[in-house]
Every structure is written in C-alpha cells, then in structure tokens.
Amino acid sequence: MKFPYLTDEQIKDAARQLLGRVFGSPSEAGSHVDLEAVIYDYLCEKENLSFNDEDPLEPEDGEEVLGKTLPRAGKILIHGPLRSDRMSGRYRFTVGHEIGHWVLHRPLVLADAQQLSLLTPPEGYEFISLNRSVFPGEKRQVPPEEWQANRFASYLLVDPDLLTTHFTRRFGAPPLPRREGGGVARVPNLHEFARATASQTARRQRPLYVEFGLSVEAMAVTLKQRGLVVDE
C-alpha cells in the first residue's frame, strides 16, 4: 500500500506527543530516553503491543533483518543479537524505527484491513528493517514509510531542545562549521566532520552519541539533518 507524505514537523510532533504521553513532557524523557518505559509501560499497556527482542530474526533475501512491525498482529519483533552492549546504539535506533511504524503507519494499515483478501494471513502487511546503513546515501531512494520511521526514531531518541543544549555545552552555540584543517578534526567532508563531532569528548563532556544512546552514524546524521554542523 502507499503511505502519504508527512512533513518533518508532523513526524516531530508525533514523536513528541508519544514522549509526552509516556513521561509527561518530551523534556522529562531526558537525553537517554528510557525505551522500556515507552514500550512496556505505555505501548504494551495502553495499545496492546506484543514486543519481542529475545529471538533472532531469519534473513530476508540473504540480508540480515534487524526488526519487524506487524500492524495487524499487533507485534514488534527485534533481532535478539542486537541486545548486546556492542550493538546498543543500533538496537535503540531499530526499536525507535519500529515504534515509528507503529505510531505513523499502523493506523493506516488497520484502516485498510477491510479491503484485504480473506486469504491474507493474520499478520498481513509487514514492515521489515534490513541491516543496511541507518540512513541511506543521498542518491539512494527509499520508500516514504522507511524515511518517515527513521526520522521518527531520531526525534523520539533525540529531543531538539536537549540536543541544542548538550551541543552548546561542548562546542558553543550552533552551527559548528567545518573548515579545512580546523574545527573538531581534520576531515575531508561534512559527513566525516559530523561523525567526528558526534564522537568527540569536548569540555569534559561525554560524546554526544553516548549522551543520547545512539550509534556514531545515527548521531552524525542527526547533527547534519538539524543543521548543527555545516559545510562552511
């Protein structure tokens, strides 16, 4: 099925509304959002979500599957091996991504369910997250629902106001420009500059990717998307 275009502001509002329902306000969630509270205290209790992150998921067409959302069955499945400490950033982003499908896309799938064939299995439409880059390259086209779920995860896990606060403590008021031979690190392009910024220990503050519980890659993409680092 086709999913409608959503603006960045609509996606941000949806993530903030969920945080507000769980924690009282987005700011109360803090920089390291408690995903167990989001999942078990709210989605499982209030929306009858069935969540499983214990078991490995079978590959799809030879590619590792990180997560699945089954709207009609009311399930989110996360690839069990992601729960290791080494993969915690990818685990958290994958969970946020699947919650994005649950919040943004599940209502549309359920509304469309009556038009599905009686031969459709109970699980019906599936959203499947494969083991690829957290965000695809600029030249790669992705379905709108996947872009939307990625952006939702970013806003769920990284509150804009908190990010600006923590960024300023480390690097001064944004934006932080990349300059050849200067800035945070000697890097050849904006993306590498963003990665260096995300992983930098500055002013005795822990790196931003650690502060928000993301991978370096996800934090770097977030810094670029929100204009906190610029190519000047």
Quick one: how many beta strands?
6
Instruction: Provide the spatial order of strands within the biggest beta sheet.
Output: 1-3-2-4
Mean pLDDT reading:
90
Helix and strand sequence: HHEEEHEHHEHHHE
Total domain count: 2
What is the CA-based Rg, rounded? 18 Å
For the termini, the CA-CA separation is 41 Å
- Amount of helix: 40-55%
Shape: globular
Q: Please report the number of helical segments.
A: 8
- The unreliable regions are none
Largest sheet: 4 strands, mixed
Task: Note down, in words, how this protein is organized.
The chain has two domains: 8-157, no CATH class; 160-230, no CATH class. It is 45% helix and 9% strand. It has helices at 8-23, 35-47, 88-112, 144-157, 160-171, 190-199, 208-211, 216-225; strands at residues 50-52, 65-70, 75-78, 127-130, 176-177, 229-230. Strand 2 (65-70) and strand 3 form a beta hairpin. The longest helix is centred in the middle third of the chain and has 25 residues, at 88-112. It is globular and about 55 Å long. It starts with 7 loop residues before the first helix and ends with a strand. The mean pLDDT is 90.
